[in-house]
Amino acid sequence: MTIADYLMLFSVISIWSLLLVNVVLIISGYLYYIKNDKRKIPGIEGEAPFVSIMVPAHNEAKVIIQTVRSLLALDYPQDRYEIIVINDNSSDSSEELLQQLKEQNADRNFVIINTDAETGGKGKSNALNIGFQRSKGEVIAIYDADNTPEKNALKYLVAELVNDDTLGAVIGKFRTRNRNVNLLTRFINIETLSFQWMAQAGRWNLFQLCTIPGTNFILRRTIIDQIGGWDTKAIAEDTEISFQIYRLGYRIKFQPKSVTWEQEPQTLRVWFKQRSRWAKGNIYVIVKNIPLLFDRSAKKIRFDILYFLSIYFLLLTSLIVSDVILVMNALGFVQTTIASLSSFLWLLAVILFIVGTFITLVTEKGEMRLSNVWIIMLMYITYCQLWMVVAAYGLYHYIKDVIYKREVKWYKTERF
Questions:
Q1: What is the pLDDT of residue 408?
Q2: Does pTM top 0.70 for this prediction?
Q3: 347: how many CB neighbours lie within 10 A of its CB?
Q4: Would you call 245 helix, strand, or coil by DSSP?
Q5: Sign of CA dihedral 232, 235, 238, 240
Q6: Helices in 137-232 by DSSP H: which ranges?
Q7: How many Å separate Cα 19 from the centre of its chain?
Q8: What is the DSSP code (8-state) at residue 254?
Q9: H or E element that contains 218
Q10: Which regions of 26-102 does DSSP assign to beta strands (E)?
Q11: Which residues of the chain have pLDDT under 70?
């Protein structure tokens, strides 16, 4: 066997190993959805805990009022929650719009914190730390500035938390409210349902593990006090705080009945900036927490660390290597005797991808459409391939940040 053969064999084994892990998560997640759909969410006995809902916002005038109005309309005792909007160094009309809304709702627990270039504008984690200092709740809830949660979203999360002392946090899910705008938003909708929420459900069902998303989740105030707030160097503050919660001995539960609707990028440029930021943020968290693989107290999160390592390093490397070798073999620059086998396994992987992804959509009303099969097929040869570019770009900028010791800045997704 040639060097090209060995590299190709390594790549094929790596890709298929991760593909099979994904299949197991899909099956487990599907079973969890069925089980949870039949399960009645427990009620909140006695007085509901006081909740501080924090909304970090930077130049969000296009969406922030709709978000706050949906939070004001939540089915939760009005005197048992407050809304804190951290208007973080915004240069648009956010401050004026929020003040008008506050005057219209003078009888509600609605706090606006306006920061400037000195105190704010340093990222979501910094904004959350500022808001936390003003908060009063024993439970902290986080929503992004473009969210419209369903009325029961918060109540479902709190009910899970107060009925299980082993839980440090409970997460709901977010859906794509602009999914029918164009082909990109349709891709994002399928990605969200199949590769985020089905994987979350599968990990919870198998390992009692979940990763906090950036929005629609709650956690105990005591946890934030123990860890000293959010890590201001972490762009992916959600993944970072998930690891912290597990190290404290708590679990994070996924309750898919708690739903918020959010706006996703509608152009490739905005999508690329957002996803490369996510990739860079997750790489930071992975590198920071690699030592936990050898820490006995962190055994609960070893799967997650290995999972993220495999996705951002092993899978990325294997996909690039296999693609390069196949192209070079076709051009005659290298010789590999397993090119035909690799092509067959690639085709099989594509079929498995399409079938598995389509199956995950049946858990959502309105998504069981034959047209989604064609969208998934197109998604594989376009959207999924761009992921390699996004991950590589994120890794490149993470390395540059480390070398030049650049300060983390607020990266805001453009709204429409």
A1: 60
A2: yes
A3: 10
A4: helix
A5: negative
A6: 153-162, 183-191, 198-207, 221-227
A7: 20
A8: E
A9: strand 217-220
A10: 51-57, 81-88
A11: 1, 338-342, 407-411
